[in-house]
């Protein structure tokens, strides 16, 4: 084999290795695996009546930005892939300054704008951020996207100073959960 050919092969190999490693570390969220897990999470939440047509309805309450003006929050344990873990489901409703609690309580589906979810993944999933999986869905269960077209599912947006992880890092109890410290270890 001549040296030119060897050189080309070595270069090709390097390119392949860099492509593979780039693929593996490309983005902390919105990858096909994240989307697939987000869809499984939705199905499990629906089976457990946390979302969907047969959902339980807790009382809505008013809250500060950035989530909805009015929200409902439920949490508990569900199973995904034979693994039982904590899920926190927040439904967001209405427009700030326009929608009232009474409107949401009487007609939640009409006012729901999005559903934001935290699910506790296995240890090692994202140890620096307490292993939470983050997702944001339309009320229909479709994953929402950021302006770059990336699905909001996975470690959203690890390494950035905006979005779920960056903001929830400031939650009391160092557990990334704002409303209580039930899951703080
Ligand atoms: C700029 C800050 C900020 C960002 C960004 C943010 N949140 Fe929150 N989140 C909050 C605050 C504050 C609360 C508690 C108040 C409330 O109930 O709205 C909260 C509450 C929640 C809760 C209920 C559990 C808890 O922590 O109290 C979930 C679930 C949640 N957010 C998911 C998400 C997801 C998923 C994203 C990203 C798609 C996200 N959040 C982005 C600030 C933020």
Describe the 3D structure:
The chain is an alpha+beta fold. It has one domain. It is 30% helix and 22% strand. The protein contains 5 helices and 6 strands. It has helices at 3-25, 32-47, 101-106, 108-111, 163-168; strands at 61-62, 70-80, 83-93, 112-120, 132-137, 153-154. It has a 6-stranded antiparallel beta sheet. Strand 1 (61-62) and strand 2 form a beta hairpin. It is globular. The protein starts with a helix and ends in a 17-residue tail after the last helix. The structure holds heme C (HEC). Heme C binds at residues 63, 66-67, 71, 73, 88, 90, 116-118, 134-136, 152, 156, 163-164, 167-168, 171, 177-179.
End-to-end span in angstroms?
61 Å
Ligand roster:
heme C
Uncertain parts: 15-23
Estimated share of beta-strand residues: 15-25%
Number of strands: 6
How many domains? The number is: 1
Structural class by SSE content: alpha+beta
The gross shape turns out to be globular
- The radius of gyration over CA amounts to 20 Å
Question: What sequence of helices (H) and strands (E) makes up the elements?
Answer: HHEEEHHEEEH
Strand order of the largest sheet: 1-2-3-4-5-6
| Main β sheet profile | 6 strands, antiparallel
Helix content: 25-40%
- Mean pLDDT across residues: 90
**Alpha plus pi helix count:** 5
């Amino acid at each position: 084999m001549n040296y030119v050919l060897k050189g080309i092969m070595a270069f090709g190999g390097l390119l392949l290795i860099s492509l593979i490693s780039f693929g593996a570390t490309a983005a902390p969220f919105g990858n096909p695996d994240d989307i697939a897990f987000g869809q499984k999470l939705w199905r499990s939440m629906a089976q457990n009546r946390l979302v969907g047509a047969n959902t339980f309805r807790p009382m809505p309450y008013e809250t500060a930005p950035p989530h909805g003006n009015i929200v409902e929050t439920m949490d508990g344990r569900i199973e995904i892939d034979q693994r039982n873990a904590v899920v926190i489901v927040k439904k967001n409703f209405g427009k700030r300054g326009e929608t009232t609690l009474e409107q949401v309580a009487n007609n939640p589906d009409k006012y729901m704008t999005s559903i934001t979810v935290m699910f506790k993944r296995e240890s090692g999933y994202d140890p620096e951020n307490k292993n939470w999986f983050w997702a944001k869905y339309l009320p229909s269960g479709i994953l929402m996207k950021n302006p770059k077209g990336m699905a909001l599912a996975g470690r959203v947006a690890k390494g950035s100073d905006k979005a779920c992880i960056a903001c929830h890092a400031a939650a009391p109890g160092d557990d990334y959960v704002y409303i209580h410290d039930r899951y703080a270890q």
